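Run DUF112 domain-containing protein through structure prediction, thanks.
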Amino acid sequence: MLRELLTGIAGGTLSGVSPGIHVNTLAAFLSSAGIRDNLVLFAMGLTHTFLDVIPSAFLGVPDEGTALGVLPAHRLVLRGRTMEVVRIALWASFLAVLMAIPSMPLYFRLAPLYRPGAGRFLVFLLAVFLVLTEPGLKKLSALLVFFLSGILGMLTFRLGLSQPFYHLFTGLFGVPVILLSALEGRTRPIGAGDGEVRLDKGRFLGFSALGTALGMAASLVPAFTASQAALLGSFLSKDERSFLTIVFSVNTANFMFSFANFLSTGRRRNGIVALMAPAAESDIYFYLLVALFVSMAVLLYAEPLAVLILRLLGRVPYRALNSAVAGILVVLSYLFDGVTGLVFLLGGVMIGLLAAVLGVKRTNCMGVLMLSIIIG
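Sure, done. The structure for DUF112 domain-containing protein is below.
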């Protein structure tokens, strides 16, 4: 059992810190190589949710769970608060695990009650609220960005690409951050900072609890994804730190509850869960203990690992680092889906930059998922 746990933690660490390599991709590769143990996959997926802050904050490279956190995280990084972002992510994720454990009995009662249709209506209301929060005529610009990203998403999903989320989220949220940083002439290296979380402990707990609740809701309703749960959280937070606390809590809680949903109903709400073998509902007690072990293990080495990566990145000139990351993202897009992948990556970049030019929130790009859900 220890070997499986360590294998999962190592795999989640690799996917978590590597730009462009999602845990679902690595898990699918291991599964094709004959490594399909549920314990390995669970430990890998949970570890990834703790560490995916590193490529998203350090390099501006998102995945679907943390896409909305790229901009606020990157802003704090550019202010020299990199280790604070890492610490927010780690402790928000850990609190999500702790809060998920006592919530499991209630969750097992709720999971079988879900009925289709509720999720679509919820997403529609969220989309309306998203556009209406823009001031004045910017509502029209937001609507344009929403529909363009939505059409891009619908086209992408219909083509059956191997990594559609990679092209979409890297294009909409990742590459624009890198390009805008280059255009603004930022040359200074990334600063670590003192790591102190400048958010009151009570508020930190409160926002983490909110993120955990939203992550639970996202795991119950297929149309309401973790990204959209984080989007809802953006309306309830007023600064980068509180929003990031919500984002990272949502990400980890969504994984925990998606696994619980799988045990309770057999529904596969998560890519890595889709690779798991059926298991009994009573197994949840064992996996909750595993979650505690994995969480505490990651807390022991995550910050030193982040410091090491930061030092290595600090030796590379900032512009060269941005250029290298952008190049790697383009190459990965081509390796995943060839020229077609590059076309959709470019489409995402253009829409992401359009949002910046029009002066509307990049969250309007979440139409990439929401429009297809609303239309059905």
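The chain has a mean pLDDT of 85.
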